[in-house]
Amino acid sequence: MRYGFILPGGDVQTIPEMAGEAEAAGWDGVFIADCISIDTSDNPPGPWYDPWILLALMATRTSRITLGPMVAAISRRRPWKLARETMTLDHLSQGRIVLPVGLGAARDDAGFYKVGEEMSLRGRASIMDECLDILNAAWSGEPFSYEGNHYHVQRMQLLPPSFQQPRIPVWPIGVWPHEKSMQRVLRWDGIVPQKKDGSDTPLTPDDIRAIKVYVETNRKLTTPFDIIWEGETPANDPEQAATLVRPWIEAGITWWMESRWNNATPQEIRERIRQGPPRII
């Protein structure tokens, strides 16, 4: 069981420092949001920073913890460029990078509709699948070519191969119990679970149990597989924190992600980081 912290944003100078503080406080991973700009009535434009540059800085401030975006909207990125960026981070961190991926938040206005990116769920999913295929081939360090509906790659080779083998772990968002989305998850290394669109009920520990059984029954790969869940726990009440986390651990998650999306101040985020993860003893 591992415990991560999702940084929603913050000052560009202090985010790498937060990663170092998280490692010192006993967290197992630190993750950073991937956003271009959100501009809505509820969320006016605010400061956001490039996740890959920040992750590189975070890698140099840490030596143990896992790092990654949460989550990367890869349908708007050139896969060969993303392959080079992630491969570089993997070597810089000596194998501590993971790649959670999703379709991206459509409300990330400057990252999608304001610049003409694909907006349909089906279209973004198709682009994401092709991007993942290319990443997987590029990380191998072997020559490859690719012919898809969206991408066409003539024979090429990117060296060095990823530090982690057989590849950098990929954690797609998996929409439960949507069959096509779950079939995608089976091809990779973890799941960031979400409930099917239109559902008015959140996922429960019973859903996590069902997801775990589904993966164990249907996944053909023998490599490790992670189930990620995020939430918020009080730092000043370890017993209550344990009560909140325990049902999810017992259901089968392998990562608890502590998150603070609701306008927490940088000071509050740093204080929560320093208090450490909500471990179950």
UniProtKB/TrEMBL annotation:
Keywords noted in UniProt:
Flavoprotein, FMN, Monooxygenase, Oxidoreductase
Q: Name one GO biological process term.
A: alkanesulfonate catabolic process
The keyword Flavoprotein belongs to this UniProt entry's keyword annotation: yes
UniProt xrefs under SUPFAM superfamilies: Bacterial luciferase-like
Note the InterPro entries from the entry: Luciferase-like_dom, Luciferase-like_sf, SsuD_RutA_monooxygenase
Q: In its UniProt entry, what is this protein called?
A: Luciferase-like protein
User: What's a Gene Ontology MF term here?
Assistant: alkanesulfonate monooxygenase activity
Query: Which classification does the entry list for the species?
Result: Bacteria, Bacillati, Chloroflexota, Ktedonobacteria, Ktedonobacterales
Q: Does Oxidoreductase show up as a keyword for this record? A: yes
- Domain named Luciferase-like is located at 11-175
Report the Pfam families cross-referenced here: Bac_luciferase
Q: Which organism is it from?
A: Dictyobacter arantiisoli
